[in-house]
Amino acid sequence: MGPRVSATGVSLRLLRPVDRDRDHVRGGGDDAVTLLIYGDYLCPYCRRLRAVIERLRHALGDRFTYVFRHFPNEHAHPGADFASEAAEAAGRQGRYWEMHDALYEREPPLTHEHVVEAAREIGLDMDRFARDLADPTLREPIEADLADGRANGVSGTPTLFVDGQRYDGAWDFYSLLEALERPVASRLQRTARAFANLPASAGLVLLLAAALALVCANTPLAPAYQALVGARFGISGDSGVLMLSFADWISEGLLTIFFLLVGLEIRREMTSGAFTDRRAIALPVLCAIGGALAPAAIYLAINQGPTAAGWSAPTSTGIAFALGILAVLGRHAPVGLKVFVAALAVVDDIISVLILAIFYPQGFHPGWLAASAGAVLLMIALNRSRVYVGWPYLVVTVALWLTLHAAGVDAALAGVLLAAFLPTRPAPAAAPLLAQAATALAALEHAQSDARAKGAAATPLREQPIWEWASRNLSAASARLLSPADRVERAADPWASYVVLPLFAFSATGAALSVDLGSAGASRVLAGVILGLVLGKPLGVILAAFAAVKTGISVMPEDTSARAFLGAAILCGVSDPVALLMADQAFPHGDFAAVAKIGVLVGSALAAVLGALILFLSPPPLTPVASPKAAA
């Protein structure tokens, strides 16, 4: 379990950097900022944006570099392909930007005759222009731009990149100027976005937080560290139910956000993802179960008596680390294998949630569960009543958290229950929303034109009723694109990945490495956790996969070799902070919790190195053989 990492998501970083020998580049000095646009000469929005770009060029001068890449949409804009070809043909005569400007300056419709006329007006050699248009190689740079754009997730025009980072902000002059002038806040935002887009970024932050905790716990900083994580505070006095330590507020309070995301992902996979197909889900489900049972069995084979309680510590898989390593390995990790590991991790999430809920109640008080059930029923009522406002769910979730805590159940599980009942909505039809947004913007544009005509006598646009009306309509159209569940997930994900889980890792990983492994049972706990992760996890995954394939319940990913699957199975032994939580829950007193945490760290490191090495040495991904029907 860990931060969500997309196995197939597109990169927000420009995959092919700007190349002046290949790209169409305009202006710029040594310290210029670059605005790259994937555009279409017949796209009306590209045409409107061009006026903003020209204003930016005049405002920034040599500090501004403009790059244009072709992304014609012939289906939506008939004639777009020919316009791009004409611009490339003009480029062969050294007149690309003149043709570029001429095409955008002409009012649509832009027919073949209009394009040819534009070429004649800028003084092209028309005989050569005709020959170049007939040359089949003329389309090669256009097709290359299209391929690069699709690889970068470009689906419409214009799509903008600022200094190689995807720009999804507003397209007005002042918003773009702020992004291009690179004030401190803008630079920090782009840097943070670039870091978050790295496949292993969330795992790296977790590792840094865990490393910092270990440093603090094993240096002269240890007393201050222990005082911090053990500091108790709350709102109801020393004996109140809300007087918790700093570490408990994180593990039971902030971790609710993480469990909310876990629940939302499980729900999405069950309704529209990998879990909707019985045959497709059988393999990761069985492998996740085997990957939890085998480590527990190995641990219990080594540990009996008081140390047996730690059986759950080696059962959790750290998906952020596993998928991050798979992403770094690139071509050595087949796509089918990444999808399999991601699906296995979702099932592993469910298993971990059940283990926490069933095996680790603290001071169990069943009477409070009735109040918890009432809160859940209220959530169901809100969902059935199609209440799409967020605050009622927040109020009920706080009540649910309090009652679960009072009942002695890990209150962070309130996040999973909230995820189950946050309302979703069918995807809206684009046409009505487009009409609503276009009407609002057209009204604003008309009001702005009137204000310019009236000059100083005009009432400022922001003070006119049209401004508030248009703002409400644009906000409504934008908000309809996401359901409440989608909005919550989008807002909570970066907080969970880069704040909540690192804080939890910092508060839970600070185990003193000087623990006495010679004490009764300590060496058995350490060995049980390490062997459970390094040996038990891959053994359980492989045996479950073998049984699933042999019985015909499921099939292996088509592009995955046996050695690559072995490497991924070993990577499943890379654990995460939830394993540390289980260690604390299993051993609330004594030094065994610290020993188990050291075992989690050592076992995870060994599993990461071994799994990555086997995958790196595995043969290239297998290419499924097309059937005769498909080949025909």
Fold topology:
Elements: E1 24-26, E2 33-39, H1 44-60, E3 64-70, H2 80-91, H3 96-105, H4 112-121, H5 126-134, H6 140-151, E4 159-162, E5 165-167, H7 173-181, H8 184-196, H9 201-217, H10 222-230, E6 232-233, E7 244-245, H11 246-272, H12 278-302, H13 319-329, H14 335-359, H15 367-384, H16 391-407, H17 414-421, H18 430-454, H19 465-480, H20 484-508, H21 522-550, H22 562-571, H23 577-586, H24 592-617, H25 628-631
Parallel strand pairs: 2-3
Antiparallel strand pairs: 1-3, 2-4, 4-5, 6-7
Helix pairs in contact: 1-7, 2-3, 2-4, 2-5, 9-10, 9-20, 11-14, 11-17, 11-20, 12-14, 12-21, 13-14, 13-24, 15-16, 16-17, 18-19, 20-23, 21-22, 21-24, 22-24, 23-24
The H-level CATH homologous superfamily of the largest domain, spelled out, is: Na+/H+ antiporter like domain
Give me the number of helical elements: 25
Neighbour order of strands in the largest sheet? 1-3-2-4-5
Radius of gyration from the CA trace?
Answer: 29 Å
Average pLDDT rating: 83
CATH architecture of the largest domain: Up-down Bundle
User: Which regions contain 5 or more consecutive residues with pLDDT less than 50?
Assistant: 1-9, 624-632
Instruction: Tell me roughly what share of residues is in helical segments.
Output: 55-70%
CATH class of the largest domain: Mainly Alpha
- Please outline the major beta sheet: 5 strands, mixed
The total number of structural domains is: 3
Proportion of strand residues: under 5%
Determine the CATH topology of the largest domain: Na+/H+ antiporter like fold
* Helix/strand structural class: mainly alpha
Number of separate strands: 7
Ends apart, CA distance between termini: 44 Å
Shape: globular
